Records
---
Amino acid sequence: MTASAAPGRTALVDSVRTVLHDTARLYADDPRTRQLLVGQLERLDEPLRIAIAGKIKAGKSTLLNALVGEQVAATDAGECTRIVTWYRDGPAPRITIHPEAGGPVGLPVHRRDGELLVDLNGYPPDAVTRMVIDWPSQGLRAATLIDTPGTASLSTEISRRALRFLDPDDDTPTEADAVVYLMRQLHASDSEFLEAFRDQGVARAASVNTIGVISRADEIGGGRLDAMASAQSVAQRYRGEPALRGLCQNFVAVAGLIAQTARTLRQAEFAMLRELARTPGPDLHELLFTADRFLADDRQAAPLCTLPPDARRALLQRFGMFGVRLCVALLHRGTDSAAALAVELVRQSGLTELQHVLHNQFAERRDLLKARSALLALDAVLHADPRSGGAELARAVERIFAGAHEFAELRMLGALRSGAVPLPAAVVADAERLLGEGGAAVRTRLALPPDAGPVDVRAAAMAALSRWQDLAENPMTPRAATDTCRVVVRTCEGMLAGAAR
């Protein structure tokens, strides 16, 4: 069944909801377990929870600000970066901390130069389990973003907090439905972390809930104008490596600082950039050669630059050297307004591609990811504290995992991505697309444009069904591949039935 076929998706969530209710009744005498199960019921109706993780200084908070479109997350190494912080859409700005001892505590909301300032009001960061920031934002309506402390920090406690949130050691599933993992370049420690996060069951087969982001991508090319092209080539290479495909569903290159600044660009900054771009060619080239030369108050190096050093320093802090060079190049190409510059910077930063990937591979699978989180919680509860009547509920969980076609698709995707299915590469690519590797929407699966009509959808689904039925019945198809063929056939049948409705 496809992601846009609402009856199938609703049936999966309804099945999970029923088992959650039955299990909550079974554990009615255990307040802690019952509260966990009720929380999972409420979680089914909430936006997706997407955790942003990675090593310290990977640019997590900067990317979060770019996704939200406002500077709500602290990007320096302050005390707030040591706390797991949830960012939710809300009717009005509100900050709440949850200390280890006592109830939630509200904090005042202060902003300076567009940046949210958080004062913990005397609470040590180590004594706060989480902070919740409610903020009215279009970017937070589809998903709650969770900023985690940096892993591989010099402080073992900071690293432990992130690991404890994403990979709890008490047999409870993580509170995140999906993870965006940032890396400056892939190290062995990144692979080890992703392997640890990848939990048991169907998730272990598909890595459907993890996207890798090559952050600070402009640094790969040394800040040259072609730096993003170099970073995108690295992301493309990562996508093609079987070992990495088993850890992350996709890899995207993003220049986080450019993306954040583009989403919060000020008219005064545009005016400074336009003045800088008017500097005559030789002087401008000298200024943009290195950061030191850009900041130098040296009239001999660039005598015709009218932008003072303090203004250049402010631009460098907000855009970075790559961003300044990119902005000047765009202005020379005819970009004539702050709005137009912001749009182009968002696109060239890689943020547009990341937003597209988040929508196709997370948002369109919202119900599936939510159901998966709830089933993992149920499985943990039923095995940690077996009770009379619990065996039937455990079998119900297993039946959903085994019988729901959405999970069968995930298992097949995992097998295809790891190279375990003996099919030609062209056929594998077709199967991955039909199973939703690039997005769960019917038209995406069928490689049709978004505005394709029902007749085109039906014709494409019929062609795909015939193609895979022939392959499944072909005596030359390896037996090890027939299960994949049957799953793809079932997917095509579901799309065809949806088109008929």
---
Amino acid sequence: MRKLFFNSRGLRAGWRLLIFVGIFVGLGFLSNWILPKIFHPMERPFLDPVGTIFDELQGLIQVLLATWIMARIERRRFPDYGIPVRHAFGVDFWVGLAWGAASTSLLVGLIAAFGGYRILGLALHGGALWYFLGLWILASLLIGLTEELQFRGYLLATLADGIGFWAAAILLSIGFGALHYFLKPHERWEDFAATGLLALFVCLTLRRTGSLAFAIGFHAAFDFANLFLWSGQNAGEYAPGHLLETRWQGPQWLTGGLLGPEASWMVFVPIVLMFCIFDRCYRHKKFPG
């Protein structure tokens, strides 16, 4: 019986994952029961930045609490799970921001080069522009923080302890793509594949930089550029408060259709380039330590 639960390193990874997921889900049920009694939340449209901020903040608190509890149980620290503490917004974060913005800009540029994208003008002016700019910066940062800590933090580190880093990274990346595919409307295989490959790319950045700082910056900038800066669709809708009036025209394999540029076939060009360039620029394994 002891071998079923323990190995030479202590409690087996599978049981630790079950405990973590149980704590995370339990905290979610608790917050969904308590918060509506306190705040009386309003119905908000999909992709509303204010609603996104509250939802992602709730998810961030959940994953931080669940990870902290497991760290206490295992007598480990957040950096052991790839979660940056001292250098969360250090050089790697800003380099990740640049990569996220550049990759999305290349993607939209390729779509435009084939006639699928045109800018008609600004959708925001004056105070509204600065208001939504601030909201989308905060919302995108919280999306990056929350989703990276949920999918590439404790889960990836602990699963890697059980089955190896790349097996864990591939499994979680497929799961990340599947969640988008099955839980969002209008989904197609292109978005599943692109989302899964982008998730695998940020696993590579964790492996080579030693923390999730790069991944958080990349994720935040990628979403910010897609939703606000270049004003693409997501799940059939434009984000409230997007920057530009745009025209997306042509076949959905080019524009991404209702799913936006992330589901365009053009997305695979920057993905391949990122894997190749990052592999050459960051050559040494740093995670797990």
---
Amino acid sequence: MNQPIRALWTHNFAPEKPNSLVFVDIAADGMRACGVDVHLEYLGNLRSLTGLAAARKRVTAMTKGFDLVHAQYGSACALATAGAAGLPKVVSVRGNDWNVHYESRGFLYVHTRLARAMTRWSLGSYDCVLSVSRRMAAELRAFAPASKIETLPSAIDLKRFVPRDKLEARARLGYPGDTDRWILFNALDLNDRVKRFPLAKEAFDLANARCGNLSLRLAHGLPHEALPLLVAACDVILCTSETEGWPNSVKEALACNVPFVATDVSDLRDIARQEPTCRICAPDATTLADALCQAVASPERPDLRRHIASMDREASSRQLKDIYESLLARSCDPARSSLRPGN
């Protein structure tokens, strides 16, 4: 194409919440570097029918100035964006818009099922569905076999998240000479029941009682710019989530050659099968504690970055631009009566 692709990216990640939009901003910067003109549009609070209808109307009016529209989340964001007509539409399904919460009958139990229902209602309106994990892509294909579904994890910046000397990193953080084994736990909200911080804390306390000299480091309430140094200073990242799309915090740890101890979420089991320093556990504090002690005792420090090399911002941007160009080429083909897969 002679002119840059003009892409409207819709989202409902509240800008006032720290780090909630980081992964979208990273991807948008990567696409702009590839020559794609990206406009981010915050749709506002979509938890009411009035807000949803207003967002749907606004998106429909805005699309006239763009070549394609990309909903950055399923659920209500996908539903609000699905009404745009006359140009290709892409939706990214990221995790909580597809996975459901099982631990209680409270808000999350209902909310995640409603979110999944809205994602399901929307899928047929999109020309391409992007899943952040292979595991979730398989579930999406089983539900919507006629849809075009690609796996494209959220991008990270491998130039910022790099392996470092741990003692040097700790000294820069204000902990010179600290030789404890650092266990990292990362969550935007420690009260998020999906992340299960109480389980992580119980597992850490048990591990510390057994093998000693452990320090729990919380990546919570920090600007994203502070994370590369903190992550590289740690020995293991602990992920106790009930569900995940593809946890960005684990990607960032792997980029720094920091192994994980995690519950069985996303595609992490595929990596653990190949890497003895990475472990998948049942959501049980004793089992997780055992795995933490084994992980910090391991002398191995393999190249874990290789598992997320394709998720680098540059590589991911090229893949997404190829998808855009393919969809636009199809939309310009007069032999096709519709973009929809299966038509």
---
Amino acid sequence: MLSESFARGTSVLHRLDPRLRLVFATLISILLAVSTAFPTLFTGLALAAGLVLVSGLPLVEVSRRLTVINLFNVILFLVLPITYEGTPALHIGPLTCTREGLLLAARIALKSNAILMIFVALIATMAIATLGHGLHRLHMPKKLVYLLLIAYRYVFVLEQEYQRLHTAIRIRGFVPKTNLHTYKTYAYLFGMLLVRALTRADRVYHAMLCRGFKGKFYCIHQFSFSRTDRIWTVFFLVALIFLGRLEWAPPARF
């Protein structure tokens, strides 16, 4: 199962109202996604790094998550400068790197790192159940919220079923190779997984009906805004305004 290790903590960000974190994580991410000015992007990256530090998350674990997206950014830095049209900046053998391509790759790298760290600091610090109830309190479509909660709960059941089936075929001497028999075996494996998933879903549905389920999940914990939430609301609003001013009225642009 997913450990939700980031959700276990006592920092001030962990204690903030989930609705507050959801709203401002979304707004700041959207603003950074549409930004093109480097002062805005660098400031957003600094803000995201600051939130990660305030959250008290283990930096090694955060770095591992950043490594995945930065591997993709390395590929962009290798491809975009030589495929994006613009002013030649340097020549590497027969290849020409354009200034516009380099700037575009840099913008994408800054945006992706900043947005990921913002979501790690504000969203990953809450449990999936809390995330679902927070979305429900923000009047997101109920069916989407229920789908998120149920999918999170039963994705591990599907993983267990897959491991059980995979163990069964290995006990019977199956060794994967690049031949038709292997392809057929994996096709049968995933077909049986779908059949068992449908069967399990039907059993779960009837079990929920027996327990009085009427299409609604109830949350015992009631969200409420505290003084700390109000202070952070002001902080996030100021940060949004400052980032917006940097973007649409920047002192200098690259």
